[in-house]
Specification:
The complex is a heterodimer of chains A (339) and B (161). Chain A contains four helices and 13 strands. By secondary structure, chain A is of the alpha+beta class. Chain A has a six-stranded antiparallel β-barrel with strand order 1-2-5-4-3-12. In chain A, β3 and β4 form a beta hairpin. Chain B is mainly alpha-helical and 161 residues long. Helices cover 70% and strands 0% of the residues of chain B. Chain B is globular and about 45 Å long. The chains are: A alpha+beta (339), B mainly alpha (161). The interface between A and B is large, with 47 and 49 residues.
Chain lengths: 339, 161
C-alpha cells in the first residue's frame, strides 16, 4: 500500500514547500483573473485557446439538439395542423403589415432622395441556430452553432423576432459567442421612439432587465416608452427595438432618474437568432447634407452574396427598419466613391 | 502496487465533469447545479495524490474557465484552494466513513462558494443569487455516489481478482 496515508507529522520543510507552491499558484491565478478582467492582450490568447474547447461544446450541445429533434419528430398531426394554421394566420398579418411598410418605405426613400441624403439598402441577415449549453451564469453569453466558417464575424449585431439581442464578441471556426444586451458589461445607445431622446441602456446581469442611468429630470421619458437603437457609436445599426421602459425612479442624488427596461428580444432560450451581415453604417448616416451624399459608400448597398461555406445556415434579405425596400422604386444611390 | 489499472479514468472523469457542467438545465434547476469538477478533483486528490496535486488542479481549472467562459483563472484559483485544503486533511479524510466525508466535501464546496463570492465582490462583478448557495448541499448529497462510481471504475478489475 503505497500511499496509505501521509506521515502523521509532515516535515516542516515539506509543509513550507507546499505552502509556497500554493502561494505561487494563487498569485498566478490572481494575475490571470485581473488580466482577463481588464481585457487586453489576454483576450487574443484566450481566443486561440477557445478553439481547443470547441469539441466539448459540440458534445455538450447534443442533448439540446436531440431534444429539439425529438420535439420536432414527436409532433402529432393535430398539433402540427394547429401550429401550421397559427403560422399561416401570423404570416397573413405580417404580410399585410409588410405591404403597408413597403409603401411607407418607398415614400421615405423618395423624401430622402429629395433631401439628398442616402440611406443604406436592405439588411442582409443570416439565420444561426443557438447551441443549447449553459455557460457561466454570472456572464450573459450565448453560443451560436455557426462560426467564422459560416461567415460570422466579430461585431455583428444579433437580433431575433422581438428585437436586438446582443453582439458577436468571439468567433471560432465552428462556433460564435454572443454577448447579450443584459450582460453587466454591455451598454447600447438607444433612443426613445416617441421623441428621440437619446439614452444609454446598460445590462444588469439578470436576463429580464436593462438599466437606464442618469436620465435628466427634464427629459420627456415615460413608463411604457419604446426604446430603439440610436445607431450612435456605429456598433449597432439604428432602428432596432431594444425594449420598453418598465419603471422610473429618482436616483440617490435626486437630480436624475433611473429606469428599468424590459428587453424586447427573447433572451432566455430561443432556438435561432438572426445575424446582421451588413456592417453598421458610419455614424451620422442619413443626417448628412446633400454635399456629402455622394460619398456614401457603395459597400453597404451591394450585399455580400451568400458565402459558399454557409451550409446549414439560411440567408435571406429583409428590408431594414428604416431603409428603402430595394424593389420599391427607390432612387438609385450614386455610385461615385469620392472620399 | 497495481492501483492504477485504469489510467484513462482520470481524464475521462474530468471530461465528463466538464460536460455535465455545460449541460443545459431548466432555469429552475440551474442554481442547484453541483460543481461536478470539484467533486471529481476531490476524489482524485484523496485517492491518487501523486497524480493529482496543485498543478493538475490549476490546469484543469484553466480548461474549465475556457470551457465555461468564466474569468480566466477563477476556477483555477477555486480548485487550487480546494486541493490544498484536501491535501492537508487527506490523511484523516481517507478513513472517515462516507457520510462524514460527504459533510467535509459539503463544507469545502461551501468554502468554494465563499471564495467565488469574494472574487466577484472584489472585482465588482455581479454575484449570484442566494439560491446558488444550495448547490454545495446537492454536491454533498452526490459525493457518495461519485465516490463509489469512480472507485468502481478505477479499481473494478483489481477487486475482482
Amino acid at each position: 500500500m503505497p500511499h496509505y496515508a501521509s506521515p502523521a507529522t509532515p516535515t516542516r520543510t515539506g509543509e513550507v514547500a507546499d505552502t509556497l507552491r500554493l502561494l505561487a499558484y494563487l498569485v498566478l491565478a490572481l494575475v490571470l483573473i485581473v488580466l482577463d478582467h481588464r481585457g487586453g492582450w489576454l483576450n487574443r490568447a484566450r481566443q486561440q485557446a477557445d478553439v481547443l474547447v470547441q469539441p466539448l461544446w459540440m458534445v455538450a450541445g447534443w442533448p439540446g439538439r436531440m431534444a429539439e429533434k425529438l420535439y420536432d419528430d414527436a409532433g402529432t398531426l393535430s398539433q402540427l395542423t394547429a401550429e401550421n394554421e397559427r403560422l399561416r394566420n401570423e404570416m397573413l398579418v405580417s404580410n399585410a403589415r409588410l405591404a403597408r411598410l413597403r409603401t411607407v418605405a418607398a415614400d421615405n426613400a423618395r423624401l430622402r432622395g429629395l433631401l439628398g441624403a442616402a440611406e443604406r439598402g436592405g439588411l442582409d441577415v443570416q439565420l444561426a441556430p443557438i447551441l443549447d449549453i449553459d455557460l457561466d451564469l454570472t456572464r450573459q453569453r450565448l453560443v451560436l452553432d455557426a462560426g467564422s466558417a459560416d461567415g460570422v464575424r466579430v461585431g455583428q449585431s444579433v437580433i431575433d423576432a422581438g428585437g436586438l439581442l446582443g453582439q458577436v464578441i468571439d468567433t471560432t471556426p465552428m462556433h460564435a459567442s454572443v454577448l447579450l444586451l443584459t450582460d453587466a458589461s454591455h451598454a447600447v445607445p438607444v433612443a426613445v421612439t416617441r421623441n428621440g431622446v437619446r439614452l444609454v441602456a446598460y445590462g444588469t446581469g439578470s436576463s429580464d432587465r436593462l438599466r437606464l442611468a442618469s436620465i435628466p429630470l427634464s427629459s420627456d421619458v415615460k413608463v411604457g416608452d419604446l426604446l430603439v437603437t440610436s445607431g450612435l457609436g456605429a456598433r449597432f445599426p439604428a432602428g432596432f427595438l431594444v425594449g420598453t421602459v418598465a419603471a422610473l425612479r429618482p436616483d440617490d442624488s435626486r437630480a436624475f432618474l433611473l429606469g428599468d427596461v424590459r428587453p424586447a428580444a427573447q433572451l432566455d432560450r430561443g432556438r435561432d437568432v438572426l445575424l446582421l451581415r451588413t456592417a453598421p453604417a458610419a455614424p451620422g448616416t442619413g443626417d448628412r447634407g446633400p454635399a456629402s451624399a455622394a460619398s456614401e459608400p457603395e459597400a453597404a448597398q451591394t450585399d455580400p452574396s451568400v458565402e459558399p461555406g454557409a451550409a446549414g445556415t439560411g440567408s435571406s434579405r429583409v428590408p431594414g427598419p428604416r431603409s428603402p425596400v430595394p424593389d420599391g422604386g427607390a432612387t438609385p444611390i450614386p455610385t461615385g466613391e469620392t472620399p | 502496487m497495481s492501483r492504477q489499472r485504469h489510467p484513462w479514468v482520470l481524464p475521462l472523469s474530468v471530461l465528463v465533469a466538464l460536460l455535465l457542467g455545460l449541460l443545459p438545465l431548466p432555469p429552475l434547476l440551474q442554481p442547484v447545479r453541483p460543481y461536478w469538477l470539484a467533486l471529481v478533483i476531490a476524489y482524485w486528490v484523496i485517492e491518487s495524490p501523486d497524480r493529482v496535486g496543485l498543478g493538475v488542479a490549476f490546469v484543469v481549472g484553466l480548461i474549465a474557465d475556457l470551457t465555461f467562459g468564466s474569468l480566466l483563472g477563477e476556477q483555477a484559483l477555486r480548485l487550487v484552494v480546494m486541493t490544498f485544503i484536501l491535501q492537508r486533511f487527506r490523511a484523516r479524510l481517507r478513513f472517515f466513513p462516507l457520510s462524514q466525508q460527504a459533510i467535509a466535501i459539503g463544507a469545502l464546496l461551501l468554502n468554494d462558494r465563499i471564495v467565488t463570492g469574494a472574487i466577484h465582490l472584489i472585482l465588482g462583478i455581479q454575484t449570484l443569487p442566494l439560491a446558488f448557495w444550495l448547490a454545495p448541499l446537492l454536491g454533498m448529497l452526490l459525493w457518495p455516489m461519485v465516490y463509489l462510481l469512480l472507485d468502481a471504475l478505477r479499481l473494478g478489475n483489481w477487486r475482482k481478482r
